[in-house]
Amino acid sequence: MNKGQLPKAYEFRDVEARIYAFWEESGCFRADENSKKPAFSIVIPPPNVTGQLHMGHALNNTLQDILCRYKRLKGFEVLWVPGTDHAGIATQNVVERQLAQQGLSRYDLGREKFVEKVWEWKEEYGGYIIKQLKRLGASCDWSRERFTMDEGLSRAVRIVFVKLYEEGLIYRGTRMINWCPRCRTALANIEVEGEELPGRLYHIRYPLADGSGELVVATTRPETMLGDTAVAVHPEDPRYLEVVGKDVILPLMDRRIPVIADTYVDREFGTGALKVTPGHDFNDFDLGVKHNLALIQVIGEDGVMTEAAGPYAGLDRYECRKRVVADLEAGGYLVKIDDHLHRVGHCYRCKSVVEPMQSLQWFVRTQPLAEKAMEAVRDGRTRIVPEKWEKDYFQWLENIEDWCVSRQIWWGHRIPAWYCADCGEVTVAVEDPDRCGSCGSPHITQEEDVLDTWFSSALWPFSTMGWPEKTPELTKFYPTSVLVTGFDILFFWVARMMMMGLHFMKDVPFRDVYVHALVRDAQGQKMSKSKGNVIDPLIMMDQYGTDALRFTLTAFAVQGRDVKLSEERIEGYRHFVNKIWNATRLVLMNVEGARILDEIPEDPGRLAHRWILSRFQKVVQEVEEALENYHFNQYAQSLYQFFWHEYCDWYLEMIKPDLYGDDPQAKVVAQTIAVQVLRNVLVMLHPVMPFVTEELWQKLPGTEGSIMQAEFPPVDKYRIDSGAEADMELVMGVIGSIRNIRGEMNISPAARVNAVCLCATETEKGLVEANERTVVDLARLEGLSVALQGQGSKPRLAAGAVVSGVEVYVLLDDVLDFESEAARLQKEITKLEKELSITNRKLSNEDFLTRAPAQVVEKEREKAERLGEKLEKMRRHRQRIEELRHDAAGSAG
């Protein structure tokens, strides 16, 4: 990349792929496990191998990349481990859908051929998400890319399973689990997503067997009544004291079932009588165990009614519900049906409604592991940021249940357990055995089930670094420095990594956990295809460039608050990228062939120089503090404010006379400071805007290599000059006041006006006089008169303002036609009055207020408020013009 002048515009499409290839070829992302530098490490939350980059990925990986690039600039040896998750259920579903298009199922292929087909799919399509992460600029060490099903990680999974089994922390047992009829597999409790849905509450008569009356029960799932084995009431409910111990006849099945008493029953829900179906409800199962009730499974693993459902056997569960309700009504058992909002569990992968049922599965005994995971956060070995997520973390771990880790699918880590056909014992081993570990029989078969995907990803921080071998990577980079993740997998993944890391590495897997929020649309709505409000990061990068997207996400990444994103905001920060480019171009045009000093003079002279150097040191402090504490939005906003509004809008404008002037000493000082501040700002911006900063770095004088190898600017406290900042604040205030007056008075930007400053003290007077040229140039003045208050007279035909005690006046008699201006303002006022009247009429219309969507009504209210404020401002301005016109007429008279 050659030094030289920049093209007029920044064409990111030509730059990004070239820059990324340069980084990869230069080995900029490669971590040296033998380095003597302090270590900083992150493991990527592995995206599903089926994944496509979405805004959640874009935010998560942008924040990780910011931290990694920042730490490299700070002199750390940085390892960012990339990789993908095999995503058992999701990937199997993708391949099964492909087979279905050919009229085939996995059973037609058989297990071995089907798994081969999945591997083929993975090799062809599984790298898409990695390519997209590279497109985002992720500076991962791709030489260390891992996959949860690769050879090393698969061995780690086996070793962990066997050790936990031998320690009694993994067992096989029959328990109630959540079952997905679509995926045909068990799910862990946290893999079930509860959703509030409108449903119905069916009130059904259960006649007492002795003919003395009836009980009415209420249920949202009448099809499960076919498996009822009791009706439960509260032992202190006076309505049912006489019926406890009696039997009722189960409608449609003609089966006698007992009435039992238990304090679990909620007397306020429904009728206070609860149907008990131990085979299809977790709480009912517990009641069944407590009261020694039979367990009848009437819904099968495929969602179809079993033989135990009697005449309803073979029906789909929802078709069965319709038939049961019809038959209850025909038999006089249906009392009434109420609308009812209730929480329904769905499979987190395919979104099907799950069925609780009893099943023989493999479980991890989690309570002993959870205790250590909580202790590590309590004693500060791991910090969760923002702190508010600690409460959720503790609450889940305190109430943790054993983790069902077996899945009835074919894609995944097959459980290393073998069953003996002769003695019935189980052999659990790391290496495939050829005979039973108990009796020595060769008649053994391996468990068909695979492990939950989250089991292998729970080992990710240490398995990716070569565990169980004691590798240099583990020695150098474990525990990792920080985990950046979304709150939605705090339990799925973070807590499980804590448990496994502490158990097998005897240390936490990460020192910090930074939990970011969701990316929503501009109205705060969750993005979804059904709503049509999804913003695709790949499309945004195509349209506005990667740096603009990354900066937008970072600027809105406030701790504990969702990111509200819109295309307009991304487009807005695209202008910031252009500003950086254009400012650099301006500087380069003015330093070509110049002698840039290695060191800025101890006393650079001009107030503008002292001010920008002081402000720069403050910004370095702000940026470091923000990034060290994960305040990403503050990092972005500090640099945005400094670069655009201080360096560009003020400093570069102030030093133009030096850059264009004939004083060689003044010129070289201005050129040196302009270049050095720009160079260091690019370094600080690099973590969030890697592409444009690298491209510009290559063009600046005095730079070599990649910006990734630069040094993050240290804070030079000697340069912090509060006096210079206060003085410049006053000078900028004077200029800003004159500019505001010009705008309010509708004075043409090309018109040169005269201004007067009346100062309260000699110090202020001297300061304004010393910077007179700057005020005249930047405020576009013909001339500036400076005097002490009391010594200079206040001009009559002038608009004024007060800045820190300094009275500022702009003379209007030669530049403003008061008659025309008053007419123009009246025209504007009339237009605004009409617009406000229309809006107010709409807001006073009850029909509009009740029928229009809330956001539409709110927008109209905001519009009315905005119009009202503008109208009031215009009226005040017109009144001021009328007063000036009156004064002008008096002067003429």
UniProtKB/TrEMBL annotation:
Q: Where in this protein would one find the motif 'KMSKS' region, according to its record?
A: 526-530
Check the record and name the InterPro entries matching this protein.
aa-tRNA-synth_I_CS (IPR001412), aa-tRNA-synth_Ia (IPR002300), Anticodon_Ia_Val (IPR033705), M/V/L/I-tRNA-synth_anticd-bd (IPR013155), Rossmann-like_a/b/a_fold (IPR014729), tRNA-bd_arm (IPR010978), tRNAsynth_Ia_anticodon-bd (IPR009080), Val-tRNA_synth_C_sf (IPR037118)
Where is this protein localized, as stated in its record? Cytoplasm
- Pinpoint the Aminoacyl-tRNA synthetase class Ia domain residues: 19-566
Which region ranges are annotated with the description Disordered? 869-893
Which GO-annotated molecular functions does the record name? Answer: aminoacyl-tRNA deacylase activity; ATP binding; valine-tRNA ligase activity
Residue ranges under compositional bias (Basic and acidic residues)? 880-893
CDD domains for the chain? Anticodon_Ia_Val (cd07962), ValRS_core (cd00817)
Where is it mostly found? cytoplasm
| Pfam families, sorted | Anticodon_1, tRNA-synt_1, Val_tRNA-synt_C
Query: Which GO BP terms apply?
Result: valyl-tRNA aminoacylation
Q: Which domain of life is it from?
A: Bacteria
**Function, please?**
Catalyzes the attachment of valine to tRNA(Val). As ValRS can inadvertently accommodate and process structurally similar amino acids such as threonine, to avoid such errors, it has a 'posttransfer' editing activity that hydrolyzes mischarged Thr-tRNA(Val) in a tRNA-dependent manner.
The protein's name: Valine--tRNA ligase
Q: Which gene encodes it?
A: valS
